[in-house]
Amino acid sequence: MNPFFERDLRLSRRQFFGKAANGIGVMALGGLLATDGFGRMFQKKGGLPPLPGLPHFPPKAKRVIMLWQGGAPSQVDLFDYKPGLEKHRLEELPQSLRQGTRLSTMTATQGRYPVLPAIRPFKQYGESGMWLSEMLPFIGSIADDICLVRSMNTESVNHAPGVTYFLTGSPIPGRPSMGAWATYGLGSMTEELPSFVVMTSSDVGKTCGQLFYDYYWGSGFIPSKYQGVRFRSEGEPILYLDNPPGISHDLRRGVLNDIAELDHQRLDEYGDPEIETRITQYELAFKMQTSVPELLDISHEPSAVLEMYGPDVHRLGSYARNCLLARRLAERGVRFVQLMHAGWDQHMNLSTQLAFQCRDTDQPSAALVKDLKQRGMLDDTIVVWMGEFGRTVFVQGDVNNPSGHGRDHFGAAYSMWIAGGGFKGGTVYGETDDFCYKIVKDPVQVHDMQATILHQLGIDHQKLTYRYQGRDFRLTDVAGNVVPALFA
Q1: Please, what are the domains in the chain?
Q2: Of the four listed, 230, 263, 388, 425, which is most buried by Cβ atoms within 10 Å?
Q3: Computed over its alpha carbons, how large is the radius of gyration of the chain?
Q4: Tens-place pLDDT, residues 129-182
Q5: CB 222 within 8 A of CB 475
Q6: Residue 351's closest CA among 133, 70, 123, 120?
């Protein structure tokens, strides 16, 4: 007996109607899309169309570049200026202040909580006079272009749940990532490259030790064609992109045409979205054989541009090179670029490693914003610079040991910055108390920032949903409010 027919005979009534409804829905959507030119392009060329009705309103931005600083940068030392902390140096953080604040297990039972002010001075930058650490002179040079949020807060105090929470809306793996949601809702702007690209990097000494998991850019329960495509930093950027030996371009094209025909027949029969994914990904991979080598070749970039990103731009896999490639991807129509850089987890090496991380990331981050602005792209590109949470104002370890002390994880109050895409440059939003410990003005929770970023892309975060296991899921779960005060 045919195993597929045998399987169908065992279907329950509920399963039958569930599969039938899915197939009918796919066919209905295909019929709607086929009535316009974009629908025909999608079926024949492999592009990703937007959902009907999206964007929900005129967008301020077309794309997002996420500069993820893995390990959690210290807001105490870099962004949240507290000159009054100096008079409390190594004093015990008041117990009354610490009550009710979630800490990690590394310091929750610590015997003492001595206050440690910023390890380097702050300076004012730009016409706005924004206070930033002197360790960030290049980001300081774009102070009038960035919106600094000092009142971010999250419920997570461990790395993987913290990253997962911001990028997917839940601390538990399995939900679609922000880039997947954006691509699912808005579709692609290019047929030659993935609509969602991920690149990773780390400090040269590999001091952070944090891993980047695939579900940080996964598609969860929505079709896998919306997940991020990772470009590797060593060897081939994408495995198996080149034709095998002896296979010509024309032969590959013919084979893909035949496979696509068989897949379309199967899609018509079953309506499985993963078959549709296979069709689009095969076609995209074929086009990437030409587009990716051209993208990665930076030899034709003007010397002034390369110098702007710093000397590390010439090292494959570096954060600086990835920042330049992010601009090149944005130019070519990639909807969501996610750079993930590890190196910010300064538990015991704050006095030695924090400056190294700033040196590796400060210049390229600022160069990306300047580069986009010079090309007239910053207005419709959102650049986000942040980590999963912040660091404690009190010391972890032995403060008398230069290489044996630092700051622990801290989610109750931390900082991030965002530029372009209609966000208000040269502004500071939110405020913490004198000990940089609790938010006293304009808190911004994780789901609030997700909703705000989606809003600038023309998406109502409450309306972009996907039905799974009987529930309509969204990036912001059941929370989140747009923060209009951040907009220009």
Answers
A1: 36-486 (3.40.720)
A2: 388
A3: 24
A4: 999 999 999 999 999 999 999 999 999 999 999 999 999 999 999 999 999 999
A5: no
A6: 120
